Structures
1.
Amino acid sequence: MTEDLSPAERYAAARIRAVEEATALAPFRAMYEFELDPFQIEACRSLEAGKGVLVAAPTGSGKTIVGEFAVHLALQQGRKCFYTTPIKALSNQKYTDLAKRYGPEKVGLLTGDNSVNSEAPVVVMTTEVLRNMLYAGSQSLLGLGYVVMDEVHYLSDRFRGAVWEEVIIHLPESVTLVSLSATVSNAEEFGDWLDTVRGDTDVIVSEERPVPLWQHVMAGRRMYDLFEEETDHGGRGPGRREVNPELARLARMENQRTYNPKDRRRGKMVREADRERERRQRTRIWTPGRPEVIERLDAEGLLPAITFIFSRAACEAAVQQCMYAGLRLNNDEARARVREIVEDRTSAIPSEDLHVLGYYEWLEGLERGIAAHHAGMLPTFKEVVEELFVRGLVKAVFATETLALGINMPARSVVLEKLVKWNGEQHADITPGEYTQLTGRAGRRGIDVEGHAVVLWQRGMDPVGLAGLAGTRTYPLRSSFKPSYNMAVNLVQQFGRHRSRELLETSFAQFQADKSVVGISRQVQKNEEGLEGYREGMTCHLGDFEEYARLRRDLKDRETELAKQGAVQRRAAAATSLEKLKPGDVIHVPSGKFAGLALVLDPGIPAGRSNGHRGFEHHDGPRPLVLTAERQVKRLASMDFPVPVEPLERMRIPKSFNPRSPQSRRDLASALRTKAGHIEPERHRRHRAAAADDREIARLRTELRAHPCHGCDEREDHARWAERYHRLQRDTRQLERRIEGRTNTIARTFDRIVALLTELDYLRADEVTEHGKRLARLYGELDLLASECLRDGVWEGLSPAELAACVSALVYEARQSDDAVAPKVPAGKAKAALGEMVHIWGRLDALEEEFKINQAEGVGQREPDLGFAWAAHQWASDRTLDEVLREAEMPAGDFVRWTKQVIDVLGQIAAAAPREGSTVAKNARRAVDALLRGVVAYSSVG
C-alpha cells in the first residue's frame, strides 16, 4: 500500500506515526491484543489533552478501556487515580482486573467493609467511599489526578443517585473526571452540566453495539425473528425495521374469537375444514416451558444464555424445573472441573453451614451447567456462578434484573420471560431503558459474531409494542439529587452557609429544573394571548360578566366547601367509633375491598405501642386489624369506614389463634359466620344537607338573581367563555407558580434543612456545633435519627448484641410490608431502646412537617423498621446460621447483605460516639466483631 504513495505522502504519514508514537496512547494501545474502537481512541485523546470526558455507549462496548487509560495516565504522570463503581461486586471485579494488569502493589480496594492497600496510586472504591473521603478532607486525596466514575447513569437512582452529584460537585478543580455511562438520550445535556461544573469536558457518544443484536420471539416450537430479515441491520445500520408479518398474524389469530356454532360466514355455517385449520394454527401458539427454552437454545447453538425472571423464587424454581426435566449441559470433564472450582471457592465455609445454604442442590445444578443468580443468594455463591459462567462451565443462568447492573457477565443469548415486572408498588411494563439494559448482555465481544435477544410469547403480546421497546435504544438521565442532613452539616462545616447554597445550585438537578423553565415560560406567553380572546368572548352588553361569573364560582365553591365539611364530620364520627372498638368485637365493614362481616383482632389505636412491623404508632387514626368472614387477616384504613361503625356482637378470640395459620383463620372465620352471619347491619341515616340552611349561599343566590347579566339571552354562552377564561387563567397561574417553584428549588430545600438543624442546635449560623460534628460522621438514610439517639443516650448500657438489634432498625427495610404480625424484637433493654428510637423518630417527623421537609420528595427520615432486630441480635449472640435463618425466614444473601450494612453503620457510630463517659463506642466495636463471623466474614461482596 505504501508503495503507491508519493515520497511526500510517505514522509507525511511517517511524521503522523512519529507524533502518535510519542503519545501516552501508543504504548497503552499496544497492551491490548485487539484494535481500539474509534470512540475509545477519541475519548483517550481528549483525556491526554487534559480534558474531562463523558463516554456514553451501549453495555459491553468497552467503555472501561477509557477508564483504564486514565489509570495508565495517572501512573505515567506519578499521580493518583480513583476508580469508582456503584456496587461492591463491581469494585471487586475491577480491582482484580487492574491488579492483574498493573500488579497488586500498585492497586488498592476500598468498599466500606474491605480495605486492601488503600494508599496505592490506583484505588478502586464504591462512590460512597469517595464521597465520605471528600467530606472528611482525607489525606488520601493529595496527589489525586483522575477520578473514573463507572456506571455514572446511576445518578438517576432514587435512593443513591445524589452521591454521584456530590462527588462531581466537590472534587478539587485539579482532578480530571472520566464519566462512563450507558447510552442515554440526553448525554449532551449532561455534558453541558459537566462542562459548567468541571470545566472543559468532551462528550463522546457511540450508538453502535460491538456485536450486532438480533431480536426474536419464541412461540410454541418456533423462534420467529422480531423484524423482517431484509430490513434488519442487526441493530447497527440504518434502514427501516418492519415487524415480522408472521408475528403480527400470530397475534391476530390469538385475538380471534373461538369457534361458536351460531357464527355464520356469508350466510352459511363455518366449514369443518376451516375449523380444523384454525384449531391446528392455535395449537402452534403457546409459551414454551423453561427446560424447553434451554433445550431449544442449545439445539440452535445459542448458549450460554441468561434468562431474566423478575422474581427470586421463580429463578430458583426454574433451576429445579430444568433438573427435574433431566437437563444436562456439561460433559463429565466439565462436571469434574466445576466441582473442583466450587470446592476450592467454598472451602472456607464450615461444613455445618453448607446444608443450611442448600449447597448440595446448588452444586448439582452447577455440575449440570445450570444456576440461579439473584440478591437473595449468598455472595460467595453468586461469585462462583459468575466465574463459572465466564469460563463457559455454566451455560444457563436464571437471574433477576440486578444482574444487568454492571456485572461483567456477557452471554450469547438473553431471554426475557415477560415484559412486565413488579416495581415495589404495582406490576408495570418494563421501560425501553430497562429492555436495553437487559438485552445489552447478549453478544460476547471477541467470541460471538452476533448476540440474540429472545422474548417468550405471552398471551396478549403485541409484536408492534415489543418492536417499539426493542427499537428505542436510549433513555434520559434524570437527576435524583436531594440535600440531606449529613450533607448540610458537612457543607456548612467546609464552606459556610452562603457558599454551600451556591454549590447546591450548581447541581444537575437544578440545571435540569432551570432548563425546563424556558418551555414553561413560552407556554405562559401563549396562555396570556388566549386569555385576551376569551375575555372578548364573554363580554356582555348588560354589565360586567366577569363579576357575574365570579358570583357563580363563589356559589359553587361554597356548596363544595359545605359538602367537604360534611364529609370531614362523618370521618371524625367514624374515627371516634373506631376508637371504641375492642378485640373480640364483631363489626360490619361498610365499604372497601374487605367490606362485610369482620372480627376485630386489634383495634389499632395510636397509643405508643406496636401496631405493625414498621414501628409503634399510627398517624392516620385507628387502623383495626380484623379477620374477615372470608378468612383474611387485614389491617384496615380509615377510608374503609366512611360512616361510624357499631359492634354487632362479641366473640372470644382463642389464645391459640395464629393469624399466619390458614387452619386457625379458617376455624375462627367459621365461628364468626355462625355467630353473626345472620345479623343485618343497621343502615346509616342521611342528614339534611347543610347548604339548605346556609346564609352565605342564600346571599350569593340573591345577588346572582339581581345582577344585570342574569337576564341576558346569551348568558349561558357568555358563561361558557367565562369558564374557559377562568380555567386558562388558573392553569397560567399554576405555570407561573411552577416557574417560581423550580427556581432555586434545591437551595430552598437546603434552607429548610438548615433551619431544622439550627432548631436542634446542630448549626449556629456558619458554626457547626459538637452535635453537628457528630452528625457529619453519620452517613445513611436515618443519619439524624442515629445522631439524636447518641445525643439522648438511648443506646447507653446496651450489650453488643442489643446495640446491633437497635442499629438494624436504621438500615433495614422490608421488601414487602406485613401488617398482620408485629416483628419479633429482643426483650429487656433492647425492646425499650427500640421503643425510644421510634418515639424520637415521631418527634423528628413532626419537626419535619413543621419545617415543610417532605419525605415524599426523598428528603427526611423514614420510619425505622424493626424487622431485622431479632436476627441481628441472635447472630451477634453467637447463634448458629441454621437457627437465625429459620427464625428470620430470610434468604442467606439478604441476611448477609443486611448484616454487613449493620456492621457499616456500627463502624460509623463507633467513630461518632462520645469517647468519655459512654459505653456506646466500645460496644459498637464489639458488636462489629460479634457480627463479622461465619457466612458474613467469608462473603467478600456485601
2.
Amino acid sequence: MRRNQWPAWVGIRTLLTKDRSILERELMEFRPFGLDEHGHTIRDLSGMSIRATVLYLEKTLAETRGEAAGREAVQELCELLNQRIKDPVYHVTPEFLRNAWNSYSYEFAAYLYEFCERLSGDPRFMFNSGAEKASPILQVLARPFSLEQIYGMFPYFSNKFASGSIESRVIEITPVSATLAMRFSDSTLRQFGSYRRRCAHLACQSAQGILAAVPVRVHGLPPARLTELACIADDADWCRWLIHWQPEKDSVLRRKVRRIVARQVESLSPGMSTEPKRDEACKAGTAVPAVSGQAPPRRLLWLVSGWLAGAGLAAGVWLVNPSVGPGEAVLAVLTPVLIAGVLINRRLWRDSRSREALIQEQISFVEARHEELREAYLEQEQTRVQLRRKVAHLTALHRAGLLFSSTLDRETLLQQVLETLTNDLHYDRAMVSFFDPAGGIIEHARVRGLSPDVQAFAQSCRIPVTDPESPEGTVVLQGRPLLIEDVRAVRPQLHPMNRTLVELSQAKALIIVPLKAKDRIVGTLTVDRVQHGLTQDDLELMATLGNQVAIALDNASAYRQIEEWNAGLELKVRERTAALEQADRLRTQFLSHVSHELKTPLTSIKGFLQNLLDGLTGPLNDKQQRYLSRMLDNSDRLIRMIDDLLDRTSIEAGRVELRPAEIDVTACLADVVEQLRPLAHARRQRLEVWDKSSALTAWGDRDRMIQVIVNLTQNAIKYTPDEGVITVAAEPAGTRMVRIVVRDTGPGIPSDCLDRVFDPFFRVPQRQRSGPKGLGLGLSIVKTLVELQGGAVSARNHPDGGAEFSFTLPVLTQTAPLYSRSDGSAAKILVVDDDADIRQLLIDRLQAQGYRPRPAADGRQALEILAAEQFGGAIVDIGIGHIDGLEVLTHIRRRYPDMPVIMITASGSQELAVRAIGMGAQAYVLKPFEAGELQQAVHTWFRLEESVSERRRYREADGQD
C-alpha cells in the first residue's frame, strides 16, 4: 500500500505527534451522538464498543481498588466528558454510556479512550479492553465458524459495528493466519484533525485487542499472535496486521453447520466470496474463505458397505447351499443394507437433535435479547414522558421567572405567584407565608384554592415555631424543603392551628419549601393536590420555584426600602443644598464686605506713605526712603490681592457684567504698555509693543480686555529677571479672531505645571520659579474673563526661552448686505424664533422698515429654508430647541460667510451671546429688548444700498452723538 495518500483537505504538516493528545482541544468540535450538523444519524461507532470500554474500566478499577472505585471512575469519566461537550443537551451519564443501543462519533470515542487510559493508569488500556468488545451474542453466533472464516468476515463485522467510519479488507487468509487491513473514512479523519496520529493509535490498539482475543472468546483457544505491519499513526494509508492462531480441531457436525451458516452469511453479505481467490477478495475489500477439509458423506459409505456386505453374504450362502432360492438370496443381500440404513437413520436423528439444541440455544438467546430490547424501549418511552414533563416544568419556570421579575409591587407579586402555582403548574391549593426570624412567628399571607372562610382562618393564624424537628421548624429553622406524602403521619407533630387548617382544607399530601433570600428565610411556599399525589419531582420543582419567588420578594422589599430611602435622601439633599447655598452667599458677602473694608485703611496707609516719600514731613535718609518704598510696594500688592478676591467672588456669584463693543486692539496695547513702562524701567527691563497689523478691531468689553493684558504683563514683569525683555503683540488668528501675546525672557514654566497655571489658587513652587508671593488668582481670573467674551487662553514655553501667554477675542466682522438692489426693492431677512409672539413682533418691525422677513419656527426649518433660498441677513434666537441658534449660525457661516447675523437671547445667557460673536455673529440683542435697540441693530447691519465704509461712518457719527 502507498503511504501518505490522504484526502486533499488533510495537511500532513499540520499533524501533531503521537504523544499529543486530543485532550489538548478544549471542547469537542463535533456532536457526540444523535444527529450531525447535516441532520444525519451519527453511526461512527456502536454503543456496544463504548459500553465494553466503560465496563472494562469499571471492572479493572474495581478489581484493584474496590467496587466503589470502579463506580467513581465511571462517574468521573462522565464528568470529564461533559466538561468537553459544549451543549449540555449532550451531557452523558454512566447509564447512558452503558446502553449498547447508542452510537457515537469517533471524536467522542477518542476523548473517552484518552480519559479511560488516564483514569486506569494503564498505557495498554485500549488493547486490553478490546477483548471485552466481543459480546455474548457475537460469541454464540460465531461459534459455528472456524477462525479462518471469522477473520475472513472481518469486513462484515467492521461494517456492523463501525458503519461508515472505517473501511476493512482481508489481504490474505489461510487456515492458520490472516493479513487484515483497516483505514478511516474522510469524515472520521476530519474529526481527528491535527491529532489524527494519536487517535488512530488508540483506535488501532482497540482493534488489535479485539482481533487477538477472537480465538479465546469464541473457541477457547490461546490468543492469536498479532504483528503490526503498518499503521495510520505512522502516516500509512492503512493499518495492516498479520495474525497467527493455533489450528483448531474439526468435526463433521461443525463442518456441516459451517456450510449451512456460511451459505446464510453469504446470502446476507453478497460482497463476501466463499471462493479462495485471495487477490480478488483483496481488491473487492471483503473475503470469506471456502470451507476446507470436505470429506465424502458417511451415509454413502455406509450404504455402499451395506450393499457389498449383502452381496458377499448372498454369495456365501449360495456357495454353502446352492439350492437357496432367489428370495432368500435377496433377503441375504438386503439384510446388511437395512442394518446400515437403521444406523444411518439413528445417526441422522442424533444430528437432528444436536441441530435442534443449537437452534434452540440461539432462539433462547435471541428471545433474551428481544426482551432486553423491549425493556429498553419501555424505558425510552418513560424517558420521553419524563422529558416532556421536564420541558413543561421548565417552560412554566421560565415564564414564571419573567413574570416575577416584571413587578416590584409585593401584592401584585404574591397574586402572580399563586396564579402560577394553580394555573400553570396545576396544583389545587397554594399558600404563601411569611416568617419573622426575630419573633419566630409564621403568618399565612395569601391563600388560593380554598373557600373564603378557610382563607380568612388561614390569614388570621400566627404560628410560633420553636422546635426545629417539627414540620414547621424543618422548613423555617433548618431551611429544608419538606414532602409530606401522608398528612396523617405527621398530624400530631403539626401546630394546632396548622392541624385545624389541614382538617378544614382536607389536605392529604403537602409540599412546603422555604423562601430563602441571601441565607435568610423570609417565608414558605405550600402546595397540595386533591386527586393526584405529590412526588419527588414536584418537590424539586417547588424548590426551584421557591428560589425564584424568594429573589422576587427580596427585590420587591429592597425596592420599597430604596424608595423610602430616596424620599428621605431627597429631603436631606434639599436641606443640605439650601444650607450650602446659604453658606456660599454668606462667604461671598463676607469676602466682599471684608475686601471693601480693607480698602479704606489701605487707602490711608498708601496716602501717608506717599506723603512721607514726597517729603511732606521732612527730609528722609536713604534707609528710610528704602523702607517706605517697600511698604508702598506691599500695600499696592495687597490692594491687587483684594481686587483679585473681589473679581473672583463676582465671577463665582455670576455677577460679572460685560459691555461688549468695538475695541481698537492697537490702542489698548499702547495704553497698557505706557501704564506699566515705569514698573519695567524700575527693574531695568525693556517693555515693547509689536503689532503685526496696522488696524485690528476686536469685539468685547474694553475694560476687561485691558484688565487681562495688565494682569498678564504684570505677571511677566514680576517673573522676568532684571534687564529682561517683555513683548506685548497682537496678530490676526484666522479670519474671525485676534490673538494678543505676552512673552517674557524669564525662566519659563515647568512642563508639569503648564496644565494647572490657570487653576484658582495655584502657584508654581518657589524652588522651581522665583518671584513675589500671591494668592494665585490672577491667571484664573484671566481665563474666566477671556472665555466669557468668546475667546480662549493658553500658556507655553517659548522655544527661545521664557514663558508666553496668549488669548484670543472675536473680531468684529464687517459685511455688506447680500442683496442690495438699485431699484429699491427690499432685502429678504430670515427670522428664526420658536416663540410665535416674538416672531410676529420681529416680522412686523422688519416689514415696517421695508424688509421682506421669512419666518422659521425652529432650527430644522431654518436649515431647510437656507438650503432653498438666499437672504440678505438673519435674526436668530439662540434657544430654539434641539438644533439651537448657535448650530444655525455655524451652518450660515459655512455656507454664507458674508451674511450679517443678529443673535437674540435672554439676558441671563449673555455668555452665549458673546460666544456667538466669536463664532461670527455681527451683534446680539438681549431679551427683553426695546424696539429702539432692535431697530438700531437692524439699521446698522441690514441697511440697504450702503457700502461697508458708509455704515462705518454712520456708526461713528452715532457714537459721537
3.
Amino acid sequence: MKLKCTIFILLIITCWMYGQKKPLDHSVYDSWQNIGTRKISNDGKWIAYSVDVQEGNSNLFLYSVKNKTSKKFARGTKVDFTNDSRFAVFQIRPLYKDLKAVKDKKLKKSKLTKDSLAIVDFLNGQTEKIPNVKTFKIPEKAGSYVAYLLENLKDKSSDDSDKEDGEENKDEDKNAKPLQLVVRNLLDGKSTTYDNVIRYEFSKNGKQLAFITKKPEEKAKDKKTEKDADDEKSADKKDNDKSKPKKYSLQTVQLVDLQKGTVTKISEMEGDFSQLSFDEEGNQLAFVGTSSAQNDLVKLYQLYYFNCKTNKKEIITNENAQMKKDWVISENRLPLFSKNGKQLYFGVAPKPIAKDTTMIANDHAVLDIWNYKDDYLQTVQLKELKNDLKKSYAAVMQTEKPDFFRNIDGEDLDTLRLVNEGNAGFALGITSLNNRISSQWEGSTKKTYFLIDNKTGERTEIVKNLNGSVAVSPLGKFVVIFDREKGVWLSYNVKTKQTFPLSTGLPVSFVDEEFDMPDFPNSYGIASWTDNDESVIIKDRFDLWEFFLNSSKKPRNITNGYGRKHKITFDTYDLDKDIKSLNRKSPIYLSAFDNTTKANGIFKTSVHSNADPVKIQMENVWGYRSIQKAKNAEEYMVIKESYTDSPNIFSTSDFSKQQKLSDTNPQQKLYNWGTNELVHWTTPKGNTSTGVLYKPEDFNPNKKYPMIVYFYEKLSDNLNRYVAPAPTPSRLNISYFVSNGYLVFTPDISYTDGSPGESAMEYINSGVEKLKQNFWVDGTKIGIQGQSWGGYQVAYLIAHTNMYAAAWSGAPVVNMTSAYGGIRWTSGMNRQFQYEKSQSRLGKNLWEAPDLYIKNSPLFTIDKVNTPVVIMSNDKDGAVPWYQGIEMFTALRRLGKPAWLLNYNGDDHNLMKRQNRKDIQIREQQFFDYYLKGAKAPVWMTKGIPATQKGKDWGFELTDDKP
C-alpha cells in the first residue's frame, strides 16, 4: 500500500512538473547554444572549446583535464595552442551588438572597438590581454612565438563597412595598409617590433619569420585650400585619363632568424610581393612579386626562391628558357614545397590579354554567345569566370637546381594532385576533355587519369574515360581505382604499370546497396591505408576489408563480418593529419553506427587481427563519428547529443570513462521539450520502411494531437540528432512544433525509377495510415511540409490525395517538362541530369518518355487539389527555377484553390538571411495553427499584403476573418 501511494505521489509530481513547463516561442532562438570551435593541446592536458549562440556573444572555455576545471573568456575566438602546450592564444571580439550596429547602420569600422589578443600561460595561470590586434599567427609545429599586427588607430581613412565579418583579415589583401608587427617569444616575454608590415608568415618549425613591409604613403602636412583641392582632383583626373603609370610603394621582403635574432633583407623594389611560403624545415622560402605599375592592365610577376642556409636567391622570370611561349608566372597560386623540400610547385598561366580601354561601350553589343560545341554552358562559364581568370597551372622546380623547372600541368587538365605530399617524382593529372558536354545530362563526367613526370612532363595513362574515382597510395607506389559502371575496385602498380582487380569474387557488394537513382551506384569509399603502401582498407555497407595492393595475399575482412551480422557500420578515424597510414599491428579505434537502433559508438581492433572488434561503447546518441586526439597523448574529446540532450563535449582517455565538460542549454528544462521513437511499417506493395515519430514531453495517450509530416529522402538515421529550436531555411522547425503540442512524423522513402511521385505516396501515406491507427493521432488534422525535393513531393501528394488538412511546399518543382531545361543558377548547370540520372529519378530524357514527365508533374493534376497550401519560391533560388512556384500558385489561383506564395526577395533556394528565416517560422506556425488547431488566421492569410504596404505591414496580426 505504501509503495502504491509513493508511485501515485510521484506521478502527481511528474504531471505537476510537466504542467509548469512552457512551450517554446519564437523569442528563444537567438540565445540557443551549440558547441563551436574545439581543440586539444598536443600533451592532452588542455581542451579549448567555444559555446556559441545563434545570434549574440560566444564564450570560449579552456578546460584542464587534470584539474577538471574551466576558465571562461567572453567573446574568445580563433583559439590555438602553442606546440609545447604551454600557451593558449586567441582573439577577443567586440560585443555582438556593436558589430551588428556597424553592419546595420553601415558605419565605418574605424569607429568600432578592435579585437584584443589574449595569451594564457598555463604554467603560472596568468592571462595577458593586448588591445587593438588585427591578426595573429603562431608556428604550426614548433616554437613558442606569437606574431601579431596592431591596428593603426590614427588612420581613419579606410571604410570597410561593406565587407563581411572577417574579410578585413585576409593577409593577401592587395590594399593592405602597413601596420606594426610585434613578434614575441612567449617563454621569456621578449618582444621585437617591425614597422609598416603588410604580410607575414612563420615557418612551421618556428625557426624563421618572413614579412613584407610597405613604405607608407606620404600625406600632405599643410591644409589645402578648396581651390588647391579642386586643382589636385582635376590634375589626378587628367593623369588617370592619360593612364599614367602609378608605381607601387617601396616594398621589402625580410627574413628573421628567430633563434639568432638576425634580420636579412631578401628583396626590395617599388612593386608588390605576396604568397610567402616556407618549406617544412624553414630552410627555404618562396614568394612572388611584380614591378609592374599598379594600374597596368596586365601585371607580370616573378617567382623568388631563397635558401635560408646559403643566403642565395634565385629569381624565375617569364624569360626563363623553360617557360612556354606566351606563358607567365602566376600570382594566384601559393608556392608549395614538397615535404622533403626537394621540389617547389608554383603557378604559371597563359599571359592575360589586356582589355581594350579605348573601346567605347555604347558602340558595341554586350551579349553571351552559346555554342553547342562548348565544353560548358555559358551559365557555367560565367559562374566560373572570376576563378577562370585567375586560373593557374602547376610547374615544379627541383630546388637543388633552382634555375630549372618543368610545367607539368596543362589547359586540358581539370586537376593536378600532388603525390606523397609532393615528394614523389610525379603528379596525378586528371582530364575530362571530350567528355564535358555530356555532363549536362549525365551529371558526372568520365575522366582520364595520368601520371605526369615532374622532370620531363611525360604522361603515362592509368585509366581512360573512367566513370568513378582514383586515389593514390600515401607513398605513391599504387593507384587504387573505383570503376562505378562495373562496381569494382582495382589496383594499378606504378612501377610495373599493371592493373589488377581487388574486389571481384567476394560475397559482398562494395557499392551502395540502397542506391535508388537511375544511375550506377557509388562506392562506400576508402577508409584508410596501411604503412609502406602494403594495403588499402575499403568499406562495404557494414564491414572493413583489407586489400593487398601487390595482390600477394587474399583480401581480409578485418572486422570479421561482425558489422554485417549485427547491422553495424564501421569506419576508421583520421586522428593525426601528419599520419597518412595505419600500422597493421597497432590497435585502432573504429566508429560504429547501428543501422537498426541508430545507436552510435566506438570499437577497438587492429588491422591484422582475425577476431571480432571489441566494443568499447555503444549509446543512443549521435556522436563518435568524429573525435579528436591529442597529438602526443592518449587523450580524446568527442561531442555527443541526442534529441533530448543538447550537444556537449566530453574528454576521455579510453572512451569507457568520459568526463562531461560543457553544459549547453540548461534553459531547455524550463520548456516542454519532447521525445522521439522509431516507427516501422509495411507499405501496400510489401516494402518495409522506418520513420521517426516526435511527441511532446507532456504527451497524453488519452488526448488527440494534430500531426505534421516532414520528409526528405531518408531521415531515420537522425533519430539521435539534437534538433535545436532555430529559424530554419524553410524546413520544419521540429522542436518548436513538438513543444507546442504537435506530433511530427518523418518517414523514410525509397524510390522506383520513373515513379518518384508514386513512391512518395506509397511510403508517406502508408506510414501516416499506420500512425492513424493510434487513438492519439487526429486523422482529420494532419499537415505535410517539405522543402526542395520534399516541396515537390508535397505538391504531388496534394494533387493525388485529400487526406491532408494543410500543406507547406518550399521551393517545389511542379512542372518537370519546363524545369527539365532550366538552370541551377548557383552552379550554372542545366537541370537535365537531375531527371535522367539523379534525384528526380525519371531515368529517361524528355523525348524518350514525355509521359513520365507529365505523370510525375503535379501541375497536370493540380485541379484535383483541395488542400490549402503555402508555397515558398524565392527570386534568387539557385537550384530550382523560381517560376515553378509561380506556375503552381497561378494554376491554383486560376482554379480558385486556397494558396499563398512567399517570395523572399533576393534570397536563395534555402533561406540564407536570418531575418527571413525568423519571418517564415512565424508564418508557418500561424498557417498550421489555423488549419490544424483551429486558431485565428493572420491578416497575411485573410486579406494579403498589397505592394503599397510592403515593408510597412507584415500581416502577422490575428483576426476573426477566414482565409
